[in-house]
Each structure stands twice: as C-alpha cells, then as structure tokens.
Design a protein that fits this description.
By secondary structure, this protein is an all-alpha fold. The chain has twelve helices and no strands. Helix 4 crosses helix 11. The radius of gyration is 17 Å and the shape is globular. The model has no long low-confidence stretch (mean pLDDT 94).
Length: 229
C-alpha cells in the first residue's frame, strides 16, 4: 500500500510539461471571464462536473484496465477515441506532448517496484497508438505500478486541478494561499467526479466542453501568451 501511494504521488506530479499549459484559462483571464479566486473555482468546478476532464479520467480507467490484461486493441481504440475527442489543435498537441514525455520517463526509469503488467510498457504504447495521448499513458503507468482504479482517477484529477490552479495563481494573479485554498475547496468536487467516472459505461462517456473549446481557439490567436494552451 505504501509503495502504491508513493508511486501515485510520483505519477500525479511527474515532470511532463503540464506547467506550460493553461487549457484556455489564459484567454479567459485576458477577456475578464476569470478574474478572481471565485471565478476560477467556478470554472474548475464546472469542468469537473460537466467538462472534458471527465472524459479524460474515463479514458484513464479504460487504459488501465486494457493494460492490465494486455488488450492492445482496446488501447488503440481508446487512444484514437481520445484524439478525436479533442476540440482544438492546442489541446490535442498538449495531450500528445505530455503523453510522449511520460512514456519516455517510464521507459527510462529503473523502478524498484515490480511491474503489474504481462505486456511491456514499450509494447503497450507502441501498439496502443502513436502519438499516444496523456490519459492513455497515465492509465498504462498506473497499471504498471499496480495503482488501483479509484486512486489513479483521483491522482489524475488532482494533478489536473493543481496545474490549472497554479496557472490561475500566475495569470490573475492570486496569492499562494488563495491557490492552496482553491485546491482544498476542490477536494469534494474531485472526489465526487472520481466516483461518477468509475461508474460510467462506455456509451455514457460525454462532456459539455464548448466553453473550453472556444477559450482554446481564442488562445491560439492571442497576441501575448505565457502558456502553450
């Protein structure tokens, strides 16, 4: 259990370049739609309840399950599905870049933790799809380190929230205490979303992410940018 917890913490905060993306928040701050801790929290809460991150978390679960049994067909299907679900080029490139970095990290690490896979990470990624989306790679990594589904989903959602809270702190700007308070306030929504995602059937995976899509498209042509999405 201790090894699983430590592996989860390492996976959730792996250096995959997430800090360079704001997922549209930069354009929303530019237009004034997000201008305070409250409006940022509302955006993140609505994203957890209705947005694309729910889809990402559901893909993590399916990638984890497929990796556990070496189902390359399922991995390939969900990787293609995840790519098609991205509404803008920036979001798609973000997922591919973070996935590529995580794969390279997994292959280079000399882990003392016994792998829970019968198929190697290299084969899972190679035959699962190229380029490989971050959610797929996250699920493969979780299976490799024998992290349970619920813990993996919680880790994925928390790392997403922590990254965007950090982006908001820099952009609005907010103080570090406000950023930490925001993450505390998001604990219950994150937990609720995780439980809902774990119960989703394949045909029920959906999101209402037009706001994210519009923000991301606006960011593509924004005059000055600190972030890549």
């Amino acid at each position: 259990m201790n090894n699983q917890l430590l592996c989860l913490l390492q996976l959730a905060f792996a250096p995959v370049g997430a800090y360079s993306y704001s997922e549209g928040i930069e354009s929303l701050v530019e237009t004034g739609a997000i201008d305070s801790e409250i409006t940022l929290r509302n955006w993140l809460e609505n994203s957890l309840q209705f947005g694309a991150v729910r889809v990402e978390a559901a893909v993590v679960v399916r990638a984890l399950r497929a990796a556990q049994i070496g189902d390359l067909t399922a991995l390939n299907y969900w990787n293609a599905w995840a790519t098609a679900a991205k509404e803008t080029e920036e979001l798609r490139l973000q997922s591919w870049q973070m996935g590529r970095t995580l794969v390279r990290l997994l292959l280079d690490l000399r882990s003392p933790v016994a792998s829970g896979l019968t198929t190697s990470v290299k084969d899972l990624v190679e035959f699962g799809g190229n380029p490989c989306n971050f959610a797929i790679c996250f699920g493969i990594a979780a299976a490799n380190w024998q992290i349970e589904e619920e813990a993996a989903v919680l880790g994925y959602l928390y790392s997403w929230a922590a990254n965007l809270a950090s982006a908001g702190v820099k952009l609005i700007p907010l103080g570090q205490t406000a950023g930490q308070q925001l993450l505390l306030d998001l604990q219950s929504p994150i937990s609720c979303t995780a439980q809902e995602v774990l119960k989703l059937e394949d045909d029920d995976i959906a999101s209402c992410s037009w706001g994210l899509g519009l923000a991301s498209m606006a960011h593509e042509t924004q005059y000055t940018r600190l972030f890549r999405s």
